[in-house]
Amino acid sequence: MASSTDHWGKRKQEAAERQSLKGRVHQILSHAQYNPDVLPDLEDYVQEQIVSETYDLNANLCLLRLYQFNPASVNIHAVARILVKGLMALPALDFQLYMSLIPERLHVEEPFATLLNLDALLETARFKEFWTEAARNRDILEVIPGFEAAMQRYAVHVLAMTYLRVPLPVLAEAINMNGPLLDKYIGQQERKGWEQLTTPEGKTVVKFPSSEYNTPSLRKITSDNLPLEQISKLLPVVESTSL
Amino acid sequence: MAYQRGRYEEDEGPAYGASASYGAVPDIVQSFVIYLYRHIREKNVYEIHQMYEGSFNKITERMFKQSPWPVVDAIAPFVENDHVFCLLYKELYFRHVFARLTPTLEQRMESWDNYCTLFQIILHGNVNMQLPNQWLWDMVDEFIYQFQSFCQYRAKMKARSEEELKQLRQYDQVWNVYGVLNYLQALIDKSQIYALLDNETARAAFTSADGYDYQGGSNVLKVLGYFSIVGLLRVHILLGDYHGGLKVLEPLDISRPGVFTKVSGCHITTMYYAGFAYLMIRRYVDAIKVFNAVLVYIARTQTYLAQSPQYDQITKKNEQLYALLVTALALSPQNKLVEETVSSQLREKHGDKLQRLQGIGYEVDAIYDELFSFACPKFITPSTPNWDEPPVNFNQDAYRLQLKIFLTDVRQQQRGQQIRSYLKLYTTISVAKLASFVGSDEATVRSHLLTYKHKTHIVDSVDGSIYRTSDLDFYIEGDMIHVAETKSNRRFGDFFVRNIVKFDDVVRDLEGVDIKEVLLYKKEAA
C-alpha cells in the first residue's frame, strides 16, 4: 500500500513539474524569447515533448534561435530530436524551418546528413526508399516514440489527397505494412470511411473517403461567401458612418 | 560577389577624427538646429517633417556630400544642450555617415550607444515629443540596417585589422543580437501596441490619426512600438526564421491599410519581407498577392516616390520584388493573381525567364539561383566568431545556407512542374502512359504525382489549415489520372469589400478638404 501511494505521489509530482515546465515555456515564448537564460528550460521541454508525445513548433524554433546566437551552447542531441520531431510533423514543412536555422557545416555531419536524406525522400514521396533507410537508422529514430505511426500518417495524408482509390500494393509500400498487419490497419480505418474493393479487372484497391482534394468537384465555390475577416474590414466604415 | 555589396561600401576609407570639424559651425547649420529644436519643442510635426525630409537633405547636398555633419558637441550650445535633442541629432549624424561615408568601428560603436540611450529614454516614458512617422520609421529601419551592416563587418574577419579584432572582441555587447531583439521587443511591449491593434475601435482611431496624438501627448513610443513589429519581422527573416517572422507580423494584418501603408519605405519593407517569408514556406499564392499589391502601389505612386531621398533604394527594392514575383510565379503559375500594370512590367523585365523556368536541369537551377541571389535579404550570422581561432570570413555563410535550402526545395518540385505541363493536356490519362511520356517507370511517376500534391498543399502545423497553391487539380482512381482544371470564379465579395473601404477613404479625405480654401486657391491660380 505504502509503495503504491508513493508511486502515485511521485506520478503526481512529475505531472505537476511537467505542468509547470509547460507553463514556464509559455511564459518564455510570450516574454523572454531572446534571453539565453531560458535555454535549459527549452531543452528540457524538447525531452518533455518526446516523452509525452506532444509537439511545440514555436518553442523548438525559439531554442534553435538561441543556439544560432551562441553556437558554443549547441546541444547536438537536442537538435537531432527536434529534427526527428520535425519529420513527424510532416506534411507541415517544420523540418525545413528548423534546417534554415542550423548552420550548414552541421548539415554534412551525422545524424543531420541522414535526417536530411530522410526528409528528401519523404518530401518527394519515395516511401519505399524511405522505409529502407529508416530501418538502417533505428538508433536515431526509434528513441522517439510515435515515429513510425507519424510517418504512416503522413504517407496516408499524401495518398488520400491524391487517390480516390489506391491500388493495395501502392498503399502497402507507402505505409510499410503487409499481410495481416495491413488488413488490420485497413480494418481500423473503416470507421473513417476506408473501403477495400476489388475492381472488375480483379485488382484490389482501397477507396478513401472523398474530399475536396481527391474529388475536385467537392470543392466549395467560395465566390459568394465572405469570410469573417473580410467583413470585419467593413466594421470601421459602418461605425464611422453611423456616427 | 554582387550579394556582398551593401548599400554602402564597407571597406576602409579615409579615417575621420571626431574633432575634425569641431569649431566653427556654419550659419546654415546653426539655424537648422535652432529651428528644428524649436519645432520639436512646439510639437510642430509639419515643420519638423519639412526640415527633416527637406532641409537636412538640401544642406547635405550643399555642404556635407563627402564629409560628416558637425559633431554634436559643436551644435549643443545652440540647443541649450538639450539631452534628447542631442541624441536625435546624433541619430541623424550617424545615419548620414552610414549613407555617405565609410563608418569606422568607433562610429559604429558610438551609434549603437546612441540608439541604446535614446531607446532607454523613450522606453522610460521620458519624452514628450511628437515626431513625424517618417522619422520614427527611419529610426527603426536604420537601427536594423546598422545591425545587419555590423554583422557583415564583423564576419569579414580577414578584412579587419588586429586592433579592430581586439576591439570587437572586447566590446562584444555592441550591436549584440540579444540587445537588438530585446530593444525591439521592449518597444512593442511597452507601447502596448498589440493590445491596441487587437481592439477594432482603438485600431481604427490609431489608423485614422496616422498614429499621431492630437490630445497633447506623445506619439513616439506608440509609433516606434508599431514600427518595431516590422523591425522584428525583418530581423527574424535576416536570421532565416520565416515562421517566427510571420508570427510577429500577424497582428499588423497587412491585408488592409494601416499606419504602415502611410510611410512608403515601411510599406515596401513590410511587404517585401512578408512576401519573401511566404515564398520560403511555399505559400506561393500569398507571396504572389503580397508582391502584386506592393508593386501596384509602387507603380501608382511612382511620381511621388521619385521625390523621396530614398528613391534609389526604392528602385532597387522594386527590381528585387519583380525578381521574387517571377520566382513565385514559376513555382505556382497563377498569372490571374497579377494585375495588368504589374504583369506588363513583368513581361518586359523577365518574360524570357518565366518560360525557361518551366524546364528541368542545371540551366533552370542557375536561373533560380540568380533570381534568389539578386532579390534575397542580406542574411546575417548573428553570433560572435570564435576569437581563438585564426580569422576567417563567414559573411556569406547565412546567405549560402538559405540559398541551398531554397534550391533543394525547388529541385524537388521540378518533376511535378514537368508532369503538370502534361496533365494540362488531358482530362484522363493512365499512369503508364504518363510514365512513357516522361521517360520513367510507373512507381517513379506515382511518386512525382504525390510530390506535386504534397508541395502544392501546404499544411500549417499549428492550426492544421491547408493552403492550396496550384491551379490544376487531379486525382487518381487506381491506374487512371483524372484532371480538372480549376475555373476560378471572380470573387465579387472581396472586390466590393475592397472598394467600399477605398470609397470610405476617399469620402473621408474629401470631408477634410476646406472648400473655401480650394476656391481661394483656384482664384489665385486664375
From TrEMBL, chain A:
Domain called PCI: residue spans: 55-213
Assigned keywords, A-Z: Cytoplasm, Initiation factor, Protein biosynthesis
Domain of life: Eukaryota
Compartment list: Cytoplasm
Main subcellular location: cytoplasm
Gene Ontology CC: eukaryotic 43S preinitiation complex; eukaryotic 48S preinitiation complex; eukaryotic translation initiation factor 3 complex
GO molecular function, one term: translation initiation factor activity
GO biological process, one term: formation of cytoplasmic translation initiation complex
Family under the similarity heading: Belongs to the eIF-3 subunit K family.
Function: Component of the eukaryotic translation initiation factor 3 (eIF-3) complex, which is involved in protein synthesis of a specialized repertoire of mRNAs and, together with other initiation factors, stimulates binding of mRNA and methionyl-tRNAi to the 40S ribosome. The eIF-3 complex specifically targets and initiates translation of a subset of mRNAs involved in cell proliferation.
Subunit structure as annotated in this protein's UniProt entry: Component of the eukaryotic translation initiation factor 3 (eIF-3) complex.
UniProt-recorded name of the protein: Eukaryotic translation initiation factor 3 subunit K
UniProtKB/TrEMBL annotation, chain B:
Function: Component of the eukaryotic translation initiation factor 3 (eIF-3) complex, which is involved in protein synthesis of a specialized repertoire of mRNAs and, together with other initiation factors, stimulates binding of mRNA and methionyl-tRNAi to the 40S ribosome. The eIF-3 complex specifically targets and initiates translation of a subset of mRNAs involved in cell proliferation.
Cellular compartments annotated: Cytoplasm
PANTHER family for this protein: EUKARYOTIC TRANSLATION INITIATION FACTOR 3, EUKARYOTIC TRANSLATION INITIATION FACTOR 3 SUBUNIT L
Coiled-coil intervals: none
A Gene Ontology cellular-component term: eukaryotic 48S preinitiation complex
HAMAP family in the record: eIF3l
Alphabetized Pfam families for the sequence: Paf67
Entry-linked InterPro entries: eIF3l, PCI_dom
Domain PCI: from-to ranges: 286-490
Keywords, ordered alphabetically: Cytoplasm, Initiation factor, Protein biosynthesis
GO MF assignments: translation initiation factor activity
Family the entry assigns: Belongs to the eIF-3 subunit L family.
Main location: cytoplasm
GO aspect biological process, one term: translational initiation
Protein name according to UniProt: Eukaryotic translation initiation factor 3 subunit L
Subunit structure of this chain's protein: Component of the eukaryotic translation initiation factor 3 (eIF-3) complex.
